[in-house]
Every structure is written in C-alpha cells, then in structure tokens.
Write a structure and sequence with these properties.
By secondary structure, this protein is an alpha/beta fold. It has one domain. 46% of the residues lie in helices and 11% in strands. It has six helices and four strands. Strands 1-2-4-3 form a four-stranded parallel sheet. Helix 1 crosses helix 2 and helix 1 packs parallel to helix 3. It is globular.
Length: 155
C-alpha cells in the first residue's frame, strides 16, 4: 500500500461498510430541523443499496479485520489513509468498533511503529488501547474478547 492506491483503498472500504451497515445515528430518529450534517452521502448510500439490492444488516458493526498478508510495503500516505478510515468508520458506526490486523510483515509492522500507531500483539508486546494484531485470520474474525480483556490476560 502506498500513495497511488491508498485513497482508493480507503474509499472502497468505507463504502462497503456503509452499504452493509446502517449509520449509528440512523438507528435513532433525528428531527431534520435539528440535523447538522448534509444528507448527500446518505442519499448516495440509499441509491447504491437500491441499485445493488442490498439490505442493511440488523446488527451493529463491531469489528473490522484488515488482512495484510499481501502487503509487503506501506508508506506514510497509506498509514494516514488507514488512520482516516479508522476515524471515519468510528464516526459512522461508533467508537467501540475494533480494528484488527492480520499478516503484518516485520517491515510493515516497523512502518506502523515509526508512525506511532498503537498496536497490541496477542503473543508479545502490548500497547494499551492499541489495535490488535492477530496470528491467524480465523482468530481475528472469531475472537470474542475485547482488547482490554486480551491485555489483562497478557499482563
């Protein structure tokens, strides 16, 4: 991941989430006179759902798993785009959404560390409130424990 494709990857990821999950604030009715945001994005999402016959899930988005097994290099622009993606997803779906990484190579991991990205590894280092790096895709998808529970077990 690097400069030319980082913005596109962010946009595609966020759009995919928006098509499948309702915005957290849409779960609670907001009087249009008291709304402080534009409805352009909401209208686009509704249109795309209709065109693609997508029915949003009833569940809240809780976990985003990022598979890095094919990523051999990442630059600062891509790391910034991932940070923006994380912020946008949490604005859309709530602060509780967990980001989980899988398949970080040593060099990509080092890039994240240089960017001061908080990461927690289940089998080693632990950075409180960091995104968790999992040893397998299956564990990243199915692990039920919260990040704080994982930190308590490691400590």
């Amino acid at each position: 991941m690097f400069y030319p494709n980082s913005g596109r990857a962010k946009t595609i990821s966020l759009e995919g989430i928006q098509l499948v999950y309702e915005k957290l604030s849409s779960l609670h009715h907001v009087d249009p006179r008291n709304r402080s945001w534009s409805v352009g994005l909401e209208n686009k999402v509704k249109r795309l759902r209709k065109e693609r016959n997508i029915v949003p899930r009833d569940a809240h988005l809780a976990i985003v798993v990022l598979d890095f097994t094919k990523v051999s290099f990442i630059d600062v622009t891509a790391i910034l785009a991932l940070g923006e993606l994380e912020q946008d997803v949490r604005l859309y779906s709530g602060k509780e959404v967990q980001f989980r990484f899988f398949g970080l190579s040593k060099s990509v991991h080092e890039r994240f560390m240089r960017a001061n990205w908080k990461l927690t590894d289940l089998e080693g280092w632990n950075d409180d409130d960091g995104d968790v790096v999992y040893p397998s895709l299956q564990r990243a998808i199915w692990e039920r424990e919260s990040v704080s529970d994982i930190g308590e077990k490691a400590g």
